Amino acid sequence: IVVDWYGANDLANPKNWPVYKKVLIFAVVNYSNMVVYMSSSIYAASQKGMMEEFGVSSTVANLGLALFVLGYGFGPMIMSPLSDVDHIGRNPPYLISSTIFLLLSVLTATVGNVEGLMVLRFLQGFFGSPMLASGGASLGDVCNENVQPLALYTWACSGFAAASIAPILSSFTVPIMGWRWSLWEIVILNAPTLMTPETSRGKILYMRLQRLQKRYPEIHMITAVQAKSPRPTTSGLWNAVVVPVQMHLLDPSITFTSVYSGFVYGIYYSFFEVLPFVYEGIYQLPSDMASLAYLSVVVGVFLIGIPYCGYIYFYALPLSQKGVSIAPEQRLIPALFSSFLVPGGLFLFAWTSRPSIHWMVPTLGIAMTSAGIVIIIQCIFVYLSLSYPLYAASAFGGNSFLRSLIAFAALLWSKPLYHELGVGGGSSLLGGLCIFGVAGIFILYRYGAALRMKSSF
């Protein structure tokens, strides 16, 4: 017997839950997402003070940010896929990891040596990662297909905006309170994830199966998720860890989306190196005023949301209401246009970052680049969640790993890149490489359906 929802209106189905429960989940997921992203970049303003106290180079100090980013790349590969395992679900990884993250944040703010600081920053990223990687899957659990792109956009915006606002916050507080204050701000902002209702379809049906199995022990039962899955999701932790690797090795669509989103994500994190170089170095602004350039990221992210929401409201939603099935590739349409914003913004930033041109012009380039990046990653999130619904958390986890790995590398190579080639040469090189991504996203849009037909996921 296959255990499934009792009908289209089954209240156990998260998509049928009342609005207040969905709002609670939205609030917790997005707030937790914001806190972890802020925790990565809020450290940027503390690097000078940390260098003075421990007597280390700028490269070592920069590792505090880079290792955090690397940590939240490794974490999803181990922890987030567990939420796809029926007998575990979404909540346990969230609750356990967020509690450990809070404890690590206290230790990080009080550690007395640079080695311990680096280890703790990596562990912070590691245990903060499950919400970053699987929060989108949680939002997808409670949203129907029409609302899901908008829900995922709030998730993407909360992360991008938070990571950009954090350096501004620390730039104004660290000079007054000391370099450790940015680490204490993480403790103040953070709180363990509330025990929200379980949203995983597999876990809810598994719990229902357990209740029915106790009542009817003589009947063999499986859940609808187990019946549809080509691999037993209850086969243990090994399967949970291996699936993301298999998906990226065997499915070219997943491989491309992860590499492309990783590259543009690395460009985003390179901003934390190049913006001080431009606004403090070229334009001679004080550090607190120079940090306000990060607001251009927030402006770009929210302004691009207007046409994106228009696409959802005027194109995707009417088709869905008419009963027309929208292929996952159709969800990539905004990314086709936005893919041009990334190289365009980088070229504008590269060629106008000079004292003779007002600082607002290169700042516009940063806003354009940020707008393009957030829509590309947003569309990829929607594409993955709709193309691989049974393995959404695994797909997000693998994607998060590659994105973070490339961002880690970007934080290390961006300073040498800009010192060797200058702002114009370095940003032009990145913009030129983005052209390959533009071609790739168009190829995925054209041939993605055929590739999905051959996929075993």
From TrEMBL:
<feature type="transmembrane region" description="Helical">
    <location>
        <begin position="425"/>
        <end position="445"/>
    </location>
</feature>
<feature type="transmembrane region" description="Helical">
    <location>
        <begin position="94"/>
        <end position="112"/>
    </location>
</feature>
<feature type="transmembrane region" description="Helical">
    <location>
        <begin position="254"/>
        <end position="272"/>
    </location>
</feature>
<dbReference type="GO" id="GO:0005886">
    <property type="term" value="C:plasma membrane"/>
</dbReference>
<dbReference type="Pfam" id="PF07690">
    <property type="entry name" value="MFS_1"/>
</dbReference>
<dbReference type="InterPro" id="IPR036259">
    <property type="entry name" value="MFS_trans_sf"/>
</dbReference>
<dbReference type="GO" id="GO:0015244">
    <property type="term" value="F:fluconazole transmembrane transporter activity"/>
</dbReference>
<dbReference type="InterPro" id="IPR011701">
    <property type="entry name" value="MFS"/>
</dbReference>
<feature type="transmembrane region" description="Helical">
    <location>
        <begin position="359"/>
        <end position="383"/>
    </location>
</feature>
<keyword id="KW-1133">Transmembrane helix</keyword>
<feature type="transmembrane region" description="Helical">
    <location>
        <begin position="23"/>
        <end position="45"/>
    </location>
</feature>
<keyword id="KW-0812">Transmembrane</keyword>
<feature type="transmembrane region" description="Helical">
    <location>
        <begin position="335"/>
        <end position="353"/>
    </location>
</feature>
<feature type="transmembrane region" description="Helical">
    <location>
        <begin position="54"/>
        <end position="74"/>
    </location>
</feature>
<feature type="transmembrane region" description="Helical">
    <location>
        <begin position="390"/>
        <end position="413"/>
    </location>
</feature>
<keyword id="KW-0472">Membrane</keyword>
<dbReference type="GO" id="GO:1990961">
    <property type="term" value="P:xenobiotic detoxification by transmembrane export across the plasma membrane"/>
</dbReference>
<protein>
    <recommendedName>
        <fullName>Major facilitator superfamily (MFS) profile domain-containing protein</fullName>
    </recommendedName>
</protein>
<keyword id="KW-0325">Glycoprotein</keyword>
<feature type="transmembrane region" description="Helical">
    <location>
        <begin position="292"/>
        <end position="314"/>
    </location>
</feature>
